[in-house]
Amino acid sequence: MLAAALLLWPGPAAAVERLVVQVGGLALPLELSQLEDWLRNPSGRSELEPWFNLLDPATRRDLATLLRRPFPVRGDQAAPLLDSWAGRQLLQQLGRVLRPPEGEAAPLLLDLFRRADGRQTPTQLLRESPGSSLQLDLDALLDLGEQLQRQLIAQRRLVQQLQALDLPPLPPLPPSRQTLLRSDERLAVDHRLAPLPLSLVWPAGGPLRSRWVLLSHGLGGSRAQLLWLADGLASRGWPVVVVQHPGSDDAAVRDLLAGQRSLPGVETLPERIQDLQTVHRAMTEGRLRFGDRPTPAAMVLSGHSLGGLADLLWAGARPGRDLAARCQRALGAIPVLNSSLLLQCQLSGTDLPALDPPPDLSGVVTLNGFGSLLWGRDGLGRLDQPALTVGGSLDLITPPLAEQIGPFRQLKDPRSRLVLVEGASHFSPVRLERETPLLQLGDDLVGKDPRQVQEVLLEVHSLFLQGLEPGASPAVGVLRQGRVKAWILDRAAADRLRLRN
Description:
Distance between the termini: 19 Å
CATH architecture of the largest domain: 3-Layer(aba) Sandwich
Number of strands: 14
CATH topology of the largest domain: Rossmann fold
Helix content: 25-40%
CATH superfamily of the largest domain: Alpha/Beta hydrolase fold, catalytic domain
Mean pLDDT: 81
Radius of gyration: 25 Å
Largest sheet: 10 strands, mixed
Oligomer: single chain
CATH class of the largest domain: Alpha Beta
Strand content: 15-25%
């Protein structure tokens, strides 16, 4: 918890002469000059020595190292992020932990982040900030830490429960070496100024399956990042259209990092849904085709994160009543482990287009989807199609206990399936090959075996699509790919899981 406090401390505590630390009902004033003296000689005598002696030697060394390093944030990158709707909500919550003695914390915190150039140490940032003091509430941080610890323990227990279900092993589908054809298109659309980029992938020979897949990337993603999935499905006979959503794609993130725009959020959903509707209309009218092959009669929507949310909304899911009240309760704590709550609550102020489900829709797949606040008690119960809900045990953005398992239980179609992938994170479906990553993400965010996870995700998709054929039913059991394991559950198996956050 001390580490968590210090990670939050450097940015906002930036230019004050005094930091008042509140802990255990006490207020401890620390002069900045005393802190700087201690940093110059942590082993020497200091007025702060009685306090720092309460820390073990390793923690004191880590503290000194942390405060000597440049604060790794640039204002031109952080300010647009924090000036978004979600960023403002986060700043408001952080203001409960770090705040000035008087007035609102959010404007001060945003100003401090804007001043950062990526080279100053925390104490240098302190010297540059206006004001004379700042309050750090360690009691609030301790409470936050306890919440995080409980949720992480619950996710570990979830894996243990999955292992105890004793589900049958599922053999992988036989590999396919079909030659693929791909067509990159730009489709003129009425709701955008520029044509919509998309890719069509289909097998060169053999019959097409009875369904085609419309695939949508997540916030900040791209069609290129999901072509591995499109290729895999097409090689097994399911033709795929992968859509790029300008305004919430990787180009939008580049603009964000360049300081040219704020962070996109669910305000992009109306255009995303219109993208999907327009592509679907072009396919059914024959303006887009898989070469000279007829378009299959049925369609399945598949999307990662925000892409999956757009799919569910178009398919018939509706936000439950009293979303604003649920959000007010949920955002009473800082949404660190489940940042999707910020996006969900933003939807309460977003106008959506007409959302009549397409008549040829036969299923929906969501990878790392979310909606625990959105759907309320029965928002997903309005879906008339089976859904495949996929989550990962390492997902800290949309944790499976809250965002996949609970909402899955609202689905009515008995062919719906819940999949939990051990070792998968929120970003496991994203594949970067020829691209240069915009951000370097560690194993905790990417997962330890992303290629193996992606092989499992391809198998999961394929088994679900295969189970939608007449007279069939999607599989239930355990899939393995190297060190990665996935549990595919029906409603009966999911009901055996005990949800404890």
